[in-house]
């Protein structure tokens, strides 16, 4: 390889993805590995990145030990914490260049191809971010399932589970779905097991159940879905986009909630043009504004 | 010691207490030690119990190795899980008798002296329990801070913190307390640190702040306090007490919320007659009905 090569990584709490691209953004190799969140486990994050690197390099016929000409552009959960960002760079074996990026910013750049836009990501969690015409960006929510991430999968699951427990406590009126919802979240475990280790993925696993019940007209499920849409609409509005700006919705819940979001927002919404790894490539190759997060 | 001696333990997630009493319930010695929750750490729970035992025995002039004539009556967090109860009994060194008790039941018996009554415990968490005339008992809530414990300290703190984050996200109107509330919960840490490890004690630490603001007429804080009182009143009513039954309120939030609870409930409430260790003694000595939990 003679010209610039970009090794782009998208890191998350349970899974990481890597992609090797040439200077034009053409994919040379790609790989998937385990968790990569430098804020929760820096050594594990570095190990995942290096496993991705070795696989991509081998597949592309590149010597994995030769990293001098390579730019590592990594958008990862946990890199929003500056202390963790510095620790990751210090712990990572050397590359020609290492560009650590807030994962939300990499996704925003990927979604809009580096042009000013807004993006709401709604999966288990929820966050929104806007790229302004001057190249700065700001975010809304993403505070986590216990105190934020309003309208996301974990939030929906918690509302439904809370309500089912209120019914069990006889402080809410009977709800035909209460018992089956508790059975669904427990699976083969007991309620004690679930309550000893409640986590956002587990709570979000109730969301398909709630959305299906809303489709069938169940009033409690409809109320939860409406409130989730309210939250997501308020979050999108908090980005204060101009009419000419594009608003992207991404994440696993964007598809099932799409029609309700469009109706309530009263403006078109779009699917992201590309993913966070493409965003990292655009940033590393100078095709998008460098990350400058501001408070607005 | 010739007659029966009772070694009573009250175990919790951060602290355990032990009390040695004679057959008439007179205290011979008492001690405090670390965490005791057999469901989260059985070995640690046994270690705490044995540390309490050695100190109580020494203080009472009893050989700590002579446990044959001693009844260990332990009401502890985590003993509501039958698997953990069995594991604790198996792991604990032998006593003359070991009586493991649900901590909420020990508190209920202590509160009412073993007579039929209802009890709502409201501190960081919330749970309610009733002893019926036939000696059976049932509970309401206590589901934990992420999905239940409605109206407790962690619940109040989460509502306030959530609202402050909504203000920061510009999806809720300005609230003069938002910044100071976030600063209060963060202390010397950053928001990222708090969000990486949100725990119920931390959330509950906001409660005095919220209650003080409510006293001064802040409308958001008043709304949160009113909703907490609503939850606690609904929980107390879910015990379906007769007019002749006594309703006890215990825990750190019972005192500041007392006047609002009395007003909304429209019936008198009482302070517990005694604590959970006294409850354990009453149970072990046959002065109160043995634990029989039912679903109602």
From TrEMBL, chains A, B:
<feature type="domain" description="ATPase BadF/BadG/BcrA/BcrD type">
    <location>
        <begin position="9"/>
        <end position="254"/>
    </location>
</feature>
<protein>
    <recommendedName>
        <fullName>ATPase BadF/BadG/BcrA/BcrD type domain-containing protein</fullName>
    </recommendedName>
</protein>
<dbReference type="Pfam" id="PF01869">
    <property type="entry name" value="BcrAD_BadFG"/>
</dbReference>
<dbReference type="InterPro" id="IPR052519">
    <property type="entry name" value="Euk-type_GlcNAc_Kinase"/>
</dbReference>
<dbReference type="InterPro" id="IPR043129">
    <property type="entry name" value="ATPase_NBD"/>
</dbReference>
<dbReference type="InterPro" id="IPR002731">
    <property type="entry name" value="ATPase_BadF"/>
</dbReference>
């Amino acid at each position: 390889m003679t010209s610039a090569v970009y090794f782009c990584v998208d890191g998350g709490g349970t899974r990481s993805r890597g992609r090797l691209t040439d200077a034009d953004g053409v994919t040379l190799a790609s790989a998937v590995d385990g968790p990569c969140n430098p804020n929760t486990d820096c050594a594990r994050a570095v190990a995942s990145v290096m496993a991705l690197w070795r696989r991509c390099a081998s597949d592309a016929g590149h010597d994995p030990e030769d990293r001098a000409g390579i730019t590592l552009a990594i958008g990862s959960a946990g890199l929003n914490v500056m202390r963790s960002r510095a620790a990751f760079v210090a712990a990572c074996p050397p590359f020609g260049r290492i560009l650590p990026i807030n994962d939300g910013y990499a996704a925003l750049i990927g979604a809009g191809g580096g042009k000013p836009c807004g993006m709401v990501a709604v999966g288990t969690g929820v966050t929104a971010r806007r790229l302004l015409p001057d190249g700065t960006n700001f975010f809304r929510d993403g505070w986590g399932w216990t105190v934020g991430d309003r309208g996301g999968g974990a939030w929906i699951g918690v509302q439904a589970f809370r309500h089912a427990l209120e019914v069990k406590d006889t402080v809410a009126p009977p709800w035909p779905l209460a018992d089956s919802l508790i059975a669904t979240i427990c699976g083969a475990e007991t309620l004690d097991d679930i309550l000893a280790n409640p986590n956002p993925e587990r709570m979000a696993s109730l969301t398909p159940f709630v959305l299906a019940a809303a489709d069938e007209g169940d009033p409690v499920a409809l109320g939860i879905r409406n409130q989730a849409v309210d939250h997501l609409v308020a979050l999108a509005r908090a980005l204060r986009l101009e009419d000419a700006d594009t608003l992207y919705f991404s994440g696993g819940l964007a598809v099932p909630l799409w029609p309700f979001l469009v109706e309530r927002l009263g403006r078109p919404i779009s699917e992201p043009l590309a993913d966070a790894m493409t965003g990292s490539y655009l940033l590393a190759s100078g095709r998008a504004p460098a990350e400058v997060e501001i408070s607005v």
